[in-house]
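Handoff note, outgoing to incoming analyst
You'll be picking up this chain. Sequence as last confirmed:
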Amino acid sequence: PKHFGLAFFHMDDSYEKKTAFGVKNLVSAKSFAAGVYMIEMKNIVSGHKDFLQIENLSFGDGQITALAGQNGSGKSTLLKTILGLIKSKGEITLDGEQLSSLSHKERAKKIAYFPQVLRTTTMDVRTLVSHGRFSHIGFSSHLSKIDEELIENAIEIADLQNLCEKNLSELSGGERQRAYLAMIIAQNSKMILLDEPMTYMDVNHQIKMQEILLKLKKEGRGIVLASHDLPQVFSFCDKICLMKEGRILCNEEPSTLSEKKDFMRSILGFSIEKNVCLNGDKKQGKFLYDYNLCK
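Most recent structure output, in case you need it:
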């Protein structure tokens, strides 16, 4: 699909080293070293009438960052700016390398993208997932052993083993979302950007998607996702990047931001707080998420 053509990841000899990744000998341990900020944005201006303005913002590997805010706050614009789908002024670097110096194809080799709107296509799940490797196989259309391993690894992570031979049209909406995510995983990129990946999913599929993202984080991938579901992202993300009218208002850990109730109310009209079981006894109740909305 057209959008996913922007998300293929290139692998060369420099990545042929042992790693803690799901498939061995694929990505260098140095590239996935925890705590290294991979995407940095400085003095960014982009969007219609210079809507998005970011002074300084970083996204690291081994972390999940949620872009939160009301409709029109600039979440999708920010993601598309990183990808180069929207022209911008300022500096965006990945591991110190200027992304503006890269073509769309080269940029796509380093950052995977899961768009808000998925195009409908007719193929089985395994074929779709294999599309994540098409930028590596050249005109021969021959999948190498490493390609096949990456495809199988992606299918396993997304828990699609029993759906591989099914056509996408036979899947539920949640299953289809996971199939597209598996294609993204197969690309083996260090950073993954997702725009509202759990929209239209029922609760069970949202929980499954959340589990998959946590697996990817554990492998060392950096994840940035746009979301409207604050209780959900506060419960499993490492950072919450709160946006309003194209500006970054804060980028903090959920526990820290949840304490700023007046600030949250001034921006969103409500606050968020951590759930506490009655009398502190966890046996008296279990919550789906660790946080909930409050007036």
